[in-house]
Amino acid sequence: MSKLWIDATNLLKWQGNPVGVVRVEAELVKYFLNRDAAFCYFDDKNGLFVQVELQTLRNAINSLQESKKSIHSVENHSLIGKSKKAFFNYLKDVLPDSSISFLDELSEKISDLYYQLILLQIKTLKVAGYIRKITSLRSVSTQQHCFDHEDHFLSAGLHWDSDCLVVLRSLKSKYRLEVTTICYDLIPVLFPEFYLNKVKPLFEQHFKSLSLVSDKILCISKNTQTDLNTWLKKKNLPTPPTEVVTLGSDFLNAKKIGETSELINEIIKKNYLLYVSTIEVRKNHWVLIKAYEKLINSGITKLPKLVFVGRIGWGVKDLLEYLRDNQKLSNYIIHLDNIVDAELIKLYKHSLFCLYPSKYEGWGLPVVEALDHGKFSLCANNSSIPEVGGGFVEYASTNSIEDWADKITHYIDSPSEITKKEKAISLDYQSKNWANFCQQIEKIAT
């Protein structure tokens, strides 16, 4: 009898606050732990798919649930005080060999001074949990692949930095495996300017491998489905059948009640607009900053604060320097990082409304989260975002400073419109849940 194997590689190799892909994998593992399924991870060192003990998976999920309560500082990894060369040598030791050329380029691009500033920021904010490192895993001891003939394999992970899909393809005919994978977005190959130079070829190889190994590819939006099929055809690659599945939004710990800091309690006493996202070039914080600057320069000074929630990412050095040198503008902006879920829930609840100006998305989870909290959002009108927000949100032209400035002031000055839209959300919006997502996956993959 064939067996369903759930790939838990990303979940088991991740430390710190979980990113979206890891959380998706965690939800699938949680669901299938109570069903007739087996679990595996890809052992990069030995090139093997290895079965994983159930208790190891339970421990990994518990670690995700606790990750925001016990953030590890870089000092625990003995990185503070190390030279840039030592730091990157450390990363080469713990990351797959396929990452080495990427790390070499990154090391060349970062000056010694900027590197020390990065370490100082990490030490201060204690967010070294974001550093991904390979950890020792308890698995069922074996020196051979865990599959049997005509088994089913389901992977919701990303494997652009390993040989996982290449090895899986070599095993597919041997074991007559049925392979189902998930595609989140094609942003690294469609918009390489949002990433380091070495990322595009790595992801091109990933999507090529995905097309060659998959019997079916599940896409998290119609927009991603279109992007994937268009790109594969352009590259003359196989186009496996695709199907759209809707992600859930009740993530691990999402309803957890806990204490909030004095800072959060002070912020919610005044009016503010909320943008939840990593601060990186693709997320387009620039358009909000320039829209606010336009409003301030036009004489409008009674503006709510702009609250940005998310870690500092790639390609925003100019933005941070701009805010540093513009005290008048920066007085309106609050940046929060590494907050607990209870604090985020409170920030959603007390915000005037939410913002989402991202330049491109595979889905757009913060829009869903805002809707789940009954909050109206002003969003960019691109990619999958209209699929997510539908008629419950308002849209602005992605890069139009004037459009964002006009619509922000319109809704600030029209609280009755916001109330009307929030009432429509409470009456008509149907929350997405992980049970439905996992049931879709189970039906397709078995």
Describe this structure in words.
The chain has a seven-stranded mixed sheet with strand order 3-2-1-4-5-6-7, sandwiched between helices. The protein has helices spanning 9-13, 20-32, 54-66, 84-94, 100-109, 112-125, 164-175, 187-190, 199-213, 222-234, 262-267, 285-297, 317-325, 327-330, 341-350, 365-372, 385-389, 401-412, 415-428, 434-445; strands spanning 4-7, 38-43, 48-51, 152-155, 178-183, 216-219, 242-244, 272-276, 305-309, 333-336, 354-356, 377-380, 394-396. By secondary structure, it is α/β, with parallel strands linked by helices. Helix content is 46%, strand content 12%. The chain has three domains: 4-67 and 134-250 and 435-445, Glycogen Phosphorylase B (Rossmann fold), CATH 3.40.50; 74-125, no CATH class; 262-428, 3-Layer(aba) Sandwich (Rossmann fold).
Topology:
Blueprint: E1 4-7, H1 9-13, H2 20-32, E2 38-43, E3 48-51, H3 54-66, H4 84-94, H5 100-109, H6 112-125, E4 152-155, H7 164-175, E5 178-183, H8 187-190, H9 199-213, E6 216-219, H10 222-234, E7 242-244, H11 262-267, E8 272-276, H12 285-297, E9 305-309, H13 317-325, H14 327-330, E10 333-336, H15 341-350, E11 354-356, H16 365-372, E12 377-380, H17 385-389, E13 394-396, H18 401-412, H19 415-428, H20 434-445
Parallel strand pairs: 1-2, 1-4, 4-5, 5-6, 6-7, 8-9, 9-10, 11-12, 12-13
Antiparallel strand pairs: 2-3
Helix pairs in contact: 2-3, 4-5, 7-9, 12-18
Quick structural overview:
The protein has 446 residues and is an alpha/beta fold.
Number of domains: 3
Residue share in helix: 40-55%
Average pLDDT figure: 85
Oligomer: single chain
Q: State the distance separating the first and last CA atoms.
A: 12 Å
| CATH superfamily grouping of the largest domain | Glycogen Phosphorylase B
Number of E strands: 13
Strand order of the largest sheet: 3-2-1-4-5-6-7
What characteristic shape results from the CA principal axes? globular
CATH topology of the largest domain, what is it called?
Rossmann fold
> Per CATH, which architecture of the largest domain?
3-Layer(aba) Sandwich
Cα-based radius of gyration, to the nearest Å: 22 Å
